[in-house]
Design goal:
Elements: H1 8-14, E1 20-25, H2 32-36, E2 43-48, H3 58-70, E3 75-81, H4 85-91, H5 98-102, H6 104-112, H7 114-118, H8 124-144, H9 146-153, E4 159-165, E5 172-174, H10 182-185
Parallel strand pairs: 1-2, 1-3, 3-4
Antiparallel strand pairs: 4-5
């Protein structure tokens, strides 16, 4: 790093002022900073199995609160990926232990969209769509949180975006489900 940019570490140690929070999957093949082309310090990152944003998870909520209230991020990126093992594990019927409880919200999404998913071919297309539906649900979870609603109430600009990354070609699919206000969350924006 120093050979490319002599001041890199001096800048890095002075402050953390990212404009972006990444909520993504723990999968090692999904490198957050590389995907968005940002250096360390420019992206605040929270990762877990299947990129969930559950309203009862204190770890996720602590990251969200810090990102919104202290760092004042302007964009929250909820990023899933096609071929997600967590999404597949949620619906393949096999028992794996504790992770089955963690993945329960994905089974709920699957049940809510049963007809749409059943109309797709089994395997890749169906699981890809479930990855998308999971991201859409997590965007709603983030936007529904009081930390976001309070920020919007203060006039703080912050948007929640939903993306799915393709391991096959490195492209990001923007699901066009961005929420930037309470009115948009409630369908009035």
């Amino acid at each position: 790093m120093v050979s490319d940019d002599a001041d890199f570490f001096r800048r890095l140690v002075r402050q953390q002022a990212p404009e972006y929070l990444w909520i993504g999957c723990s999968d090692s093949r999904v490198p957050a900073n590389d995907i968005v082309g940002l250096d360390p310090g420019e992206l605040f990152v929270h990762r877990n199995v299947a990129n969930l944003a559950p309203p009862q998870d204190a770890n996720y909520l602590s990251v969200l609160q810090f990102a919104v209230a202290v760092l004042k991020v302007k964009h929250i990126l909820v990023v899933g990926h096609y071929g997600c093992g967590g999404v597949k594990a949620a619906v393949d019927g096999k028992r794996r232990g504790l992770v089955d409880h963690w993945l329960h919200p994905i089974r709920e999404v699957c049940n809510e969209h049963h007809a749409e998913l059943e109309a797709l071919p089994q395997g890749g297309p169906r699981l890809d769509r479930l990855c998308e539906l999971n991201v859409i649900r997590q965007v709603r979870n983030v936007a529904s949180d009081l930390f976001l609603q309070d920020a919007w109430g203060r006039g703080q600009p912050v948007s929640v975006h939903g993306w799915v990354y393709s391991l096959a070609n490195g492209l990001v699919n923007d699901l066009n489900v961005t929420v930037s206000s309470l009115a948009e969350l409630n369908g009035r924006g």
